[in-house]
């Protein structure tokens, strides 16, 4: 019975919004993570489908488009409200975010706000200092305690029924994307056979390989960004700035900057701190798709050694927990 209940949650994750009892929190939900396991095993399919320049190019493009969906949308918009947009664009953003196969926007934001409230403390479910590297990297998302979406952490988002729907049906968009990739390969093969691709090859590269790389690329911020790199600000956690991680994650590697000033839209504070997500967001603001981007406060540049002096540049727009408030000290 438990297995069937668990399988039902593949299709509707919203049934479990209740917190899980402490003693059950860390139990691995094997049935529930079958899709995650299949996604990893499907990568082996490359042995049979081979490769083509077009399939590899699509995989790379899908990695970076959806990395932006995670960093610019799930992280900077839904988790931190680091800029504003219309309700319509918010929905488009949520669809794009859901295509990254990292569960729904409410789940992602609720867990991330929890991370900022408890960074590297015992309650932080993905702290490498509390639970070890692999647990912080991937293990934590397989557990019973990590599955429910804590609606109380996201009152500003939960009021939108379209977001609640996407959050509950978090497998819908990924499945549609996988089908779309397969059909794309079939059509390409029919109209341009010289490209040497096909349905299954495009599915393996454009969906499975790209998505698995995207997942582990994102997970480096939970694991490595609290282990490797330099600390500019004396935050209460062990967050660090890393150029390498910033390249992999389009700007999220400036994680110490981010923990210090979580509500700021950009995470690379200097020109050499490459932050591609911010460049895209800035471009979107120029054409009017988003607005009210939050700059780093002056104190971020003046007193990197004395962060306690950093005061919020402007009052937060919404009532978020203190550690996710714009410019709050993390
Ligand atoms: Zn962190
Ligand atoms: Zn954050």
Parts with pLDDT < 50 across at least 5 consecutive residues: 306-330
Through-space gap between termini: 43 Å
Could you say how many structural domains there are in total?
A: 1
**Overall mean confidence score, pLDDT:** 89
Q: DSSP helix count?
A: 16
By DSSP, the count of extended strands is: 2
Keywords:
single chain; 330 residues; mainly alpha; two-stranded antiparallel ribbon; 1% strand; binds zinc ion
Explain this structure to me?
The protein has 330 residues and is an all-alpha fold. The protein has one domain (45-117, 131-324). It has helices at 2-11, 34-42, 46-49, 53-79, 87-98, 105-117, 128-131, 133-137, 155-158, 161-168, 172-191, 199-222, 243-248, 255-260, 276-286, 299-302; strands spanning 84-85, 290-291. It has a two-stranded antiparallel sheet. Helix 4 (53-79) crosses helix 6. The radius of gyration is 20 Å and the shape is globular. Residues 306-330 have low confidence and may be disordered. The structure holds zinc ion (2 copies). One zinc ion is lined by residues 75, 79-80, 112, 116, 258, 262.
Task: Summarize the model shown.
This protein has 330 residues and is an all-alpha fold.
Q: How is this fold's topology laid out?
A:
Layout: H1 2-11, H2 34-42, H3 46-49, H4 53-79, E1 84-85, H5 87-98, H6 105-117, H7 128-131, H8 133-137, H9 155-158, H10 161-168, H11 172-191, H12 199-222, H13 243-248, H14 255-260, H15 276-286, E2 290-291, H16 299-302
One zinc ion binds at residues 115, 119, 226, 239, 255, 259.
